[in-house]
Amino acid sequence: MEELVNVLISTYNGEKYIKDQIDSILGQTYPNIRIYVRDDGSSDNTCNILKEYEKAGKIVLFRGDNVKWGKSFLTLLKKAETGSYWAFSDQDDVWLPDKIKWAVEWMKKQDQTKPLLFHSSYKLMSADMENELGICTAPKYKFDFRRSLTDCLYQGFSIVINGECRRLMLDCEINNLTSHDWWACLLITKFGESYYDKRIASLHRRLDISMSSSKLSSKFKWLWKTLSTGNSDIRSCAQEFVRIYSPVCNDHDIEIASWFCGEKYSLLKSIKKAFYPKRWRPNISSELVIRFLMLIGKI
Question: Which residues form a coiled coil (predicted)?
């Protein structure tokens, strides 16, 4: 029998699209998949839809309080104990049939004593899945631990991890983190190996972008949100990384990560980040924005 792949879905008020996503996972060409779903306190018809799949023996269902998506996924990752590989899934996307098969084919060729992460390309789609908004594929620049502190390359719905990566991800206090995929990104760039498959394996539904919305307006929304509240994903991942690994990894990466820690504004840390001699981002406009946000203490 083929090795077991656990697919993890966290749902929240996803009644409109959840059937499309679950059906696309059930339609995978890879034969040995178990689907775990944790509902994060939905108030719509999502749970009733999930119960039908549960009754049919197609999913393993957990229901819980609303803890937000990052903690919900990490909680589910902990519950899915048996298996060889783990994949994360959004509630409103559609997977193409060979997504898991391609991931397992790569995983089988690797050393399983190392943390491994497989990531595939995907299409950005409109909410009705009728219009293509773009294609996200492998970056042309080198992606390392330092850059992963300010940019999450691995989108959760597109990654598959092995058991060693799962072990590292769960070697944390779940309540201290807000983003499971950013946490995986930090760990893999520091300790593991990753592979970016250029083949398109999923359709990612963008509910927040209409066909008339530009990439520029999307960036302004992100900038406004960060200016208003800061970026908790960056801070929480950096703080947890330093908490766990500073006793055993006394190197420059720990020092850099420590610059992103702390709830209060630190002028010294802000200056170190904003005037760091190496690049944080791949393009000039993004680099300037990031450094400005660093200087004022929002990142």
Answer: none
What is the C-alpha radius of gyration for the chain, rounded to an integer number of angstroms? Answer: 19
Q: pLDDT tens digit string along 231-279?
A: 778 899 999 999 999 988 878 999 999 999 988 899 999 999 999 999 9
Q: Which has the minimum average pLDDT: 53-67, 119-133, 158-172, 229-243?
A: 229-243
Of 141, 101, 118, give the one whose Cα is nearest residue 196: 118
Query: Domains along the chain?
Result: 5-205 (3.90.550.10), 215-295 (no CATH)
Count other C-beta atoms under 10 Å from residue 76's C-beta. 23
pTM for the full predicted model: 0.91
